[in-house]
Amino acid sequence: MTLKAPPERWDEEADVVILGSGAGGLTAATVAANEGLHVLLLEKLPVFGGGAAISGGVVWVPNHGGMDALGVEDSREKAALYLRRILGNRARWDLIDAYLDTAPEMVEYMHARSAVKLVPRSVGPDYYSEEEGATSGGRMMDPVIFDGRELGPAFDQLRPPLPTFLLFGGMMVGKYDIEALLKAHKSWSAFRHSAALVGRYVRDRLTFHRRGTRLALGNALAGRLLRSAMDAGVDLWNDTSVLDLFQSADGTVSGLHVERDGRRIRVKANRAVVLATGGFPGSGDMMRAHIPFPDLHHSMAPAANVGDGIRLGLAAGGRLDDINRDNGFWTPVSILQQADGTLLKCPHLIMDRAKPGLIAVNGVGRRFVNEASSYHDFVAAMHRDHAYVPTIPATLICDHHFIRKYGMGLVRPGPGSHRKFLKAGYLFRADSIGELAEALSLPPETLEQTVEQFNADARSGVDRAFGKGDSGYNRYLGDGDHAGANPCLAPIVRAPFYAVRVYPGDIGTSLGLRTDAGARVVDDDDRPIPGLYACGNDMNSVMAGTYPSGGITLGPAMTFGYAIGRDLAAAAQQAAP
C-alpha cells in the first residue's frame, strides 16, 4: 500500500469514506449519514459485520442513563477512578476523558436514531471487582435479540457467528438462553423458553434460511448496526479492496484508490477517510513483531483482518502508539482438527473455567493461575509462566460430574458420546488422575498432588493457592446453584477424568494507530493528519492493552465511531454557507 497524489479526475465521490464494517465503522457511517453527509462504506469481504458479528456483543458504558433504574450507583468520577487503578501510568487521559464523556451520549443517540438497542446487565461485575471504582453491574450492556429477517435480502450479507456460538448447526443462543437450556428439565418456564427457541429455529430452516434468523450476542449488534446504516442511506460496497490512499502535498488525505468487480475506482473523500478495518490479528508478520509466542498463538478474530487500515495510516504519516501493556485482547483457545483437516477453534471465555471442579495446569502438572480470572488475564499468566516453565499449551482438567453438568470447550454438557472429541485428540479421558497425566505426558505424581491439594481447598471453600472464587467477578461466573461454600470450587473426584489443552489466542489486537481525543490519526509530532480518522481496533486501545471489563473493545469502537460521525457532520454544517 502506497500513497499517491490526488488525480485530476475522480470516478466516485462521497463526503466520508469508511473502511471496514465492524462496530466502529458502521456506527460512524450511521451517525454521519443521519446528520446529512453522503457516506460510502467499503468492506473487502462479501459479508458485513466485521469482528463485531462474531463477538459476544457486550458494550461497556459507565454512567449511562439507565443506571438509576437498576439501582446502581455510578458516576463519571467513579469510572475514572476504576480505570486509574487498572491502567496506572499507561493511561492516556485525553482518550479516557473523551470516552467517559461520550459513551453515554452515544447510547442515547443510537437508541433514538438507529435500530441499535442495548440493555444493561443488572448483575455483571467489572473484571477487577474488588478495586476502587468498580461496580457489580450496570456498565456492561447487551444487544437486544434481533430478527435477522428485518435485513431482508441483506441477511445473507451479514457475517455469521462463530460455529461455537451455534446449536444444531445454526441456532444462536445468548447468555440467558444457555441458562434456560441447561435448566429446561428443572423449570417449566425454562422448558417453554427452550421449546420456543427450537421451534423458531425449525421454522427458519423450513423456510429455507441457511441459519436461524433469531440473532443474539455480537451478531445481533452487527445486524442492528447494518440495518441502521441501511436506514440512514449509507452506500454499502462489499467485495471492495483498498489499494492506496490519495494524499495532497499539504498532507491532507483526499480519497482512495479501490478495486471492485475487477475495476479500479478513484474515490474522492470530501471530508474524511475513516480507518476501521479491525486491526491485524490475521497478519503473520505484524503478529510476529508485536505479540508473545506468535507461533503458538491462535486468533479468534477474522482472518481477513490483516492490518489494512493500520498500514494505510502508517503510510500516510501516522504511527503506532506505545502505551500498551499487551498488544492483544487475549483469550485461551482450544483446537479441534476436523476430518477435512480444518481447525475448529473454541474460545474459553466464561462458560467453563470459573465453574466448580476445574483446574488448569502447566507442562509440569502444577496450577499457575486463578482459573476464574478474566480470559485476558488467564492468557497473560500463560505468557508470563511460559518464559520459565512450559505453560503453552496449558491443560484444563475436570471430572465426570463436571463435564456432564457444564461441558468443557467444544464438549457440550449433558449425556452423550465424546467419541468424536476423543478420537480427534481434542479431549483426553482416563479412569484415574495418574493415567490422565500419562496420556497428557505430565508427571503423574505431580498432577496427583496438585489435584489432591486442590480438592482439600475445594472442600474447605477457600483456594489458598490462587484465590479462585474470592472476587465478585469470580463468583458471578461460578455456579450460583452449587451446594458448596464457594461457587467456583468443587473437588475433582468422580472418574472418569477429562482434559482439554488450551493455547493463547485473542479476540482482536489492541495495538493500533495513535490518535487524538477526536480519533484523528496523528503523526510523529502528535499533529493530526488532515482528513484521516481511525476507530475500532485500527485505533490503539483506549485501555492501553489492559482488559478492565466486558465490552471494552466494542464500547470504545462505537463511542469513537459515533464521535467521528458527529464531529464530521458538525464541521460540515459549520462550513456550509
Strand content: 15-25%
Structural class: alpha/beta
Number of helices: 16
CATH top level of the domain at 2-54 and 220-327 and 510-575? Answer: Alpha Beta
Q: Pick out the low-confidence regions.
A: none
Average per-residue pLDDT, rounded, comes to 94
- What is the count of β-strands? 23
Radius of gyration: 24 Å
Within CATH, the superfamily of the domain at 2-54 and 220-327 and 510-575 carries the name FAD/NAD(P)-binding domain
Helical percent range? 25-40%
Q: What is the level-2 CATH architecture name of the domain at 2-54 and 220-327 and 510-575? A: 3-Layer(bba) Sandwich
CATH topology of the domain at 2-54 and 220-327 and 510-575: FAD/NAD(P)-binding domain
N-end to C-end Cα span: 37 Å
Shape type: globular
State the major sheet.
9 strands, mixed
Describe this structure in words.
The protein contains 16 helices and 23 strands. With 577 residues, the chain is α/β, with parallel strands linked by helices. Among the domains are: 2-54 and 220-327 and 510-575, FAD/NAD(P)-binding domain; 331-506, Succinate dehydrogenase/fumarate reductase flavoprotein, catalytic domain (Flavocytochrome C3, Chain A, domain 1, Alpha-Beta Complex), CATH 3.90.700. Strand 2 (12-19), helix 1 (23-34) and strand 3 (39-42) form a beta-alpha-beta unit. The chain is globular, with a radius of gyration of 24 Å. The relative contact order is 0.18. The mean pLDDT is 94.
Key attributes of the depicted protein:
Flavocytochrome C3, Chain A, domain 1, 32% helix, single chain, FAD/NAD(P)-binding domain, 23 strands, nine-stranded mixed β-sheet, 577 residues, alpha/beta
